User: Fold these one by one.
Assistant:
Number 1:
Amino acid sequence: MSTDKPTGVDTYNATIERIESVADGLSIFFIRPDAPIPGRQPGHYISIGLVEPDGEKLVRRPYSLSQSLGSGIDPDLLELLIIRVPEGDLTPLLFNQGEGDRLFVRPKMVGTYLLPELRPDMTMILASTGTGVAPHMTMLETCMKTCKQIVMMECVRYGAELAYAGQIREFQKTHPNLAYISLITREGSPKRYIQDYFRDGILENEHGVTITPETTHVFACGNPAMIGIPKEDRKTGELSYETPGGLVEILTSRYGLAIHKARRPGQIHFEKYW
Ligand SMILES: Cc1cc2nc3c(=O)[nH]c(=O)nc-3n(C[C@H](O)[C@H](O)[C@H](O)COP(=O)(O)OP(=O)(O)OC[C@H]3O[C@@H](n4cnc5c(N)ncnc54)[C@H](O)[C@@H]3O)c2cc1C
């Protein structure tokens, strides 16, 4: 969270070109910066900001870039899938904005939630909760070109929140190596979470997915409870989990995958949203 300089509306350097409502309090914002922002890679995020109505304070938050599938993508347009957090500082302001309104965009692509060097023998598992599907949308077409198998897993509360499900299912028709698993927790039954698919071997047994450190990478984005980020003992390297049963714990203990770090490449990549 950053509220330091720049501060006022005079810093606004981008326009909301289009807003697509997905569900109540969930929209895709298409934002055009006055000057294109270079260096975009799948998985990057940017920061946007709005000045609070009563003052000079610019409230800024990071958002993963997203990408609708299909032809005609404008590379200079920023696509963001954003959920309104009613008690939050920025999103209630953002959801009061309309098409043509101005805002601040930090002119820099940032992040380390990036794809490894892809190989044809790879299986890429892209697992998300809520708006965490956004960075995976930017990765999908790139992975598709090279990797043997892509498994896109998405967990949301209500079916209407599956912002890109129609596009993904259409894309699947011409890309048989893409498996799409959408999970809904507050409608219908039985309730299944992303972690269940790894812990109970559902991916292997029901979907024919092989998970090995040699060929599998797992990307997990969204709710920290799904990811279950461990603390690492600096001396021994031992991991301890405040939230047990998360993906990282299952992937390390059951499948022998390792957390990816710049100095020690691994197969588990994660981006937590709060
Ligand atoms: C790298 C990164 C990328 C992000 N990308 C996205 C994105 O693509 N889309 C998006 O909607 N958000 C994304 N977020 C979260 C975003 O930055 C804000 O935290 C969020 O929009 C809430 O902002 P706020 O000022 O309204 O509320 P805040 O005051 O910042 O947050 C209040 C509380 O809201 C909850 N919260 C935050 N984000 C979410 C969320 N996405 N879903 C449910 N509850 C949430 C948390 O409990 C948080 O403590 C990202 C965060 C990070 C760190």
Note: The first strand starts at residue 14 and ends at 23.
Number 2:
Amino acid sequence: MSPFVNIHTHNNHIGNKEFIEIINIDVDDSVNVDVPFLYSLGLHPWNVETKEFMASWFHALGNSNLKAIGECGLDRVHGSDLEKQKYFFIRQIEISEQYHKPMIIHSVKTYSDIISIRKETKAKMPWIIHGFQGNEQICIQLLRHNDIYLSLGEVLFKNAARATQLLKLISQERLFFETDVSERSIVEVYEKAALLSGRSLDELRSDIFNNFVKIFGKI
Ligand SMILES: [Zn+2]
């Protein structure tokens, strides 16, 4: 049986073979990046008033547990100056491309900016838009880009109609699940998605795990 994949969480890792989790770490000067679990490292768009923390980046890039860059991205609702956010987002895209690390992206009311920046930077690495809850049109636009993946979490519990629609639109080769900051277990998230999509839990587990292996390789 394939493990449950939690592509983005801020909680402590479970450390059980039945689960694969990418734990989010916010980059700063004093952060410990020599951790015994898989993680992503990023400068969140809410924190871009701060610096680039290059020493931590370079230290982390030597650690095979660093799986992705992020979460990073753009936020029109809670973030500060959008130009500053773009500057730090693009710096992180450069790290992602140079070191071949996929990205985990936070996007609030900025989906079209994300697509424009992907085109402008000619980025090739997979991008996982986490906590996706956009509408049908935005979903279709994003999925036109072959290396963009959408990760669902809260929307499954908050808006069943939207989530059911998204589960129809997003092919299983482009889908992930996450718990993000919630205290829910990833098993609950998969179960809810199975219920709303009419797909079996086993099928979801195997397809999402295949997506993980396709992007991150075997672990
Ligand atoms: Zn998050």
Note: Strands lie at 4-9, 19-26, 39-42, 66-75, 103-108, 127-129, 148-152, 175-177.
